[in-house]
């Protein structure tokens, strides 16, 4: 059975070769059709409920919108967190479900709950707009942002063209999920009411609004049948344009109809600007394109470019510039990893040539590696995988094992050839001899990796893209090693008699120094083994000391969720003090953009000022939404090789210059845009200060902020909100209002329209165009400013107009800019960032939380929790460590099955703790952190280390079964396996050394995996070669001693029974 596949492939060489040629063709087709992405797509578990409440303060939004929704959401199963953010005009309630769950079902469940919650909300159709329920997906962000301008176009019509024609055309492109527009001037119908004319007719502004709603109608009136003809009857008086609205009747008065035109001017104009977009400092519209999750970024962007060419040819004067192009980074990462992969294969071939000194044998191995990689790609499409940085790194990590399988088989076949076997016999017997060891090593690697995926959670989903290619490669490698390699060896390797005898080839002459050096190493290894066998106690003491030292080093290694990476892009956000107008924010944003553009390393700046709620977007990422006093920019840097500073030096320089030159900044946050699923703009360090009374809570948060600012390594610390929002509280005289026939609601509603205006219940609809708002408000000269309430009027039920000041006064106060909840508790977040050279996120979070707990006196019901990366890290570290334990158990059980013993596998398992000193030492020397990526490296390393121990101990046991004494068996097996172990170790190290120390752009996030394997493999290989044989002798002594003890007690037991 061990040689069935080998015999079949050698007997059927044409079929075997044809099958592998077919594999190569299919792999090429796979590369053509497989989606290409920057990172594997992982569905976010977040669902948001967004509700617009124009004119409402954060306190009102919290009380009447956010809290009722939160309370309703408690009935849902599987909700991990319920967060809410209540700010002026807007409520955002965010629910976090389990990673890997059915997010579509979660959205449907939330929608169902919201249907029942509608009765709890003040849905009056005017000041509370309909809510949206949508998934929050930080990864489903725009893959392309276009700066859209046009020569000779009216700016309002240009925005309308973008909102309608452009969105429709680009959305129809294959694999485009949605397109949304920001910036520019959005069309709006404004009904500007003249207060004097309104007073002359004894009308209120609300009557004007109601008249528009009552007339803005389009309804079917039935079907009229005339003989053989049916005619549809419709009542259609929609607000198609300003002229139609002007002619809407309000009421009849003394036989005369009062129309809207009699009391108001109707303007077809644009909304009051609350947002703007600029690209490299020039105003434009932002056209944001989001792709479907399972599509390829470069392909989608290429299709969009083709469609843009058609649009430009049909509409002269349009101009599109690519402000942000995701495919650039995708292609850069793909080219980097592909290049690394090719270099790795070439270097692996060089190592093999050094050791084997045979072009034919080296050629066979070099053919097997790309063939194995091609075979491993075939399951990608059935597994719904994409080609991304993770899959390519996974394939690169697997090369060492592929070389290992090939070398073991080639080395075994070479030994059989030296025993005067024919190439065919040598191929069959040599492959059969190592098949079980190779299969066990492959199973060990698979057993080490699969629990990480099966454990679920974020890490299981995040690392599936890296682990599955490795698993596929291990299975493919085993198949190739028992079919293709023996087939090629049987036909291309020559028997000893047909070679040049004792004469050396030019290659062997060339490699003589290396061969002599390695032979000296083998002798030295044999000498060292002899010494260690004679001094077993000292050897074990040294091994124990390394394990103890490893655990002593562990607390010194910084810890974080995901390592920081220089992807060549970062996001910058600034926030002005509360109350800053859009005009002020826009001015400051221009100053900030100038600072960015002055940096020689910066290539593109795509900035958004203020906030605009998009109507046709599936994109939203974050726990709060922007406001009129914020601005953000996505910044693209030049290639890493073309700049003198790394991304963190550039970010710190920009921050310092902005703080020095721009007054009135409440916060500035700049964070690199990573290449992993955790790559969002959210702060990695987040301390949630909780409590009920805002007057107590905010001072506590400020004290925690002070501690955070004093913590070395933390940068850009800030609180999520403050008690600095200027407000006017309208205090209504109830008695006076009642005397005028008004209630509180009537006064408040008329005051809202008097101060700001309001929207009609129905939209401004035109054929084949998206809807726009109809705004009803007083003329600017009639609207109240400051405390001048006498400047505006409200209407009593009898038509009398009275100054608002007769029934109300305004009181200036300061309220919260934002009110946030988590699981029903009010919180203020203290946020911060860190840099690659500073202490890691977990250390900083713990330092702040511990110091705050010691120094601050929290009243009952108040306290703090570490959130941000800390929360996810504790959960995912626990999940990964459990996966590691399961992996170790599975590896042990596989070895028990292979060796038929519960004792011998324990010897091989010792290689796992022996690697830890190298792991933690390498992380400290490289100034890297223990992260989820590092732990994955430890899991991969565990499989590699045990595989080396299997090779060594398996040969020792084989020699013992052949009757060789124990000490001699160890002396013989050690040097024989030294070459195979060294070749595998050296190949693996050469493959990953560039990734560890010289990662390409976007690849440094995976650098800790390479560092862990490099350090751990170096130490574990050296210790395994010495310690495993010594421990084996001790275990063997104990086993023999127990056996002798049982034999001695056996006769006595029999006698006692008699």
UniProtKB/TrEMBL annotation:
It holds the Pfam family ACR_tran. Keywords: Membrane, Plasmid, Transmembrane, Transmembrane helix. InterPro entries: AcrB_DN_DC_subdom (IPR027463), Acrflvin-R (IPR001036). One of its GO terms (cellular component) is plasma membrane. The keyword Metal-binding does not apply. It comes from the Bacteria. PANTHER family: PTHR32063, SWARMING MOTILITY PROTEIN SWRC (PTHR32063:SF0). This is Acriflavin resistance protein. It comes from Stanieria cyanosphaera (strain ATCC 29371 / PCC 7437).
